[in-house]
Amino acid sequence: MKSGFVALIGRPNVGKSTLMNHLIGQKIAITSEKAQTTRSQIRTVYTDARGQIVFEDTPGMTRAKNKLGRFMVDVAEKTIEEADVLLWIVDATEYIGAAETEIAEKLKKNHRPLVLVVNKTDKVKDRKALAESIEKYQSFARPKELVAVSALRSENLELLLDTLYQLLPEGPMFYDEDTVTEEPMRDIAAELIREQALRLLRDEVPHGIAVTVERMKEREDGIIDLDANIVCERESHKGMIIGRGGQMLKRIGTGARIAIEELTEAKVNLKLWVKVRKEWRDNDTQLKSFGYDMRSLRK
């Protein structure tokens, strides 16, 4: 049996969460085209006859602009330190710039096996340019292995799993074979609500949003009652989230309810409220209340 922890790292929006969701065959991590979608480590489990891979999705590696950003950077760096194998995901359609160079420099200091995953190959029409990009990544990252994939289309994912099993050490299963994630359902539900906000709201609003689930209880008839708060930083943002006549909040709630029902396979009665917590991303007490505890990363 092979087993171990695999850290997914890379810039924002390169497809880390999409890749992890498709590898395990179930949506656990939320996705969107906006940066800072993933804010903390999300752990999922893939098990088959060969062994068990524990994937650890991390926030996109970028420069911190506030205490929440610092938390996200620390999460990524701590995950790198503790993983057995590093999975560096890059976007085949993007220019190789300073951000990739900085990540490569950090990874060079780490002695764990590095797999370079070139994602979104389905969007590249110029195969020669793709080959040149891959060659450049190989030259300055010097990965142990390289796999080109399309996470969205699930192309070459079996090859990627084969590669990871070859690099992982022999060891026991860390989780029961039926386990897909250790994330609490309340946390997943909160993230699915935030995902809808990310997709529907203007660019300046989503970065200042947090979601807390105040109540999640299943009735005797199987219906789940779920009460949640969408927290923002400004009164003006609160108005945008609610929308004219409450229409935006209704759209967010409808999309989130459908996603939660698909995951839980149960009917969900979702109620949403919007609250303002000014500058919460730079407030230690507020960050901790939303699950972003800096002290927990230093243990």
UniProtKB/TrEMBL annotation:
Residues 10-17 are annotated as: G1. GO terms for biological process: ribosomal small subunit assembly. It comes from the Bacteria. One of its GO terms (cellular component) is cytosol. One of its GO terms (molecular function) is small ribosomal subunit rRNA binding. Signal peptide: none annotated. An essential GTPase that binds both GDP and GTP, with rapid nucleotide exchange. Plays a role in 16S rRNA processing and 30S ribosomal subunit biogenesis and possibly also in cell cycle regulation and energy metabolism. This is GTPase Era. It comes from Moryella indoligenes.
